[in-house]
Amino acid sequence: MESEGNHRRNLGRTGEDIACRLLQDMGHIILERNWRASHLEIDIISLDPSGIHFVEVKTRRDSIQAPPQCNVDKGKQKRITRAALGFLNSRKGLPYGNHECHFDIVAVTFKGENFTTEWFPQAYIPIYV
Fold first, then answer.
1. In angstroms, rounded to a whole number, what is the distance separating the alpha carbons of residues 62 and 60?
2. Which residue segment(s) compose the domain that 55 sits in?
3. CA torsion sign, 68 to 54 to 19 to 91?
4. Which end of the chain is more exposed for a tag (fewer CB within 10 A), N or C?
């Protein structure tokens, strides 16, 4: 039997797979998945003609909880922003330093075997770091 931790991890991975397909269908090139700098992580880093996108993916089973995107609070935004700066300052991020940066959220909600996705482009603008 699958443990709760494994179930959540698999659900999250499935949500990220769905989010990548959504972004690719919109013309994004996926640069990185689960990019890490120390204890900071960015779920998806993608590029499209408008710039570089740092994407947080939130996946949930349908419930009476708040929508998944509501779980990207100010603390999480700050950590993603710090990770994005780390990426841009890294060897991999150097070619993208002059691009417009976008901080997006993709919410994936499962109801049984079906799911819905919502993309929140420029979900927040980091004014603190």
1. 6
2. 4-120
3. negative
4. N
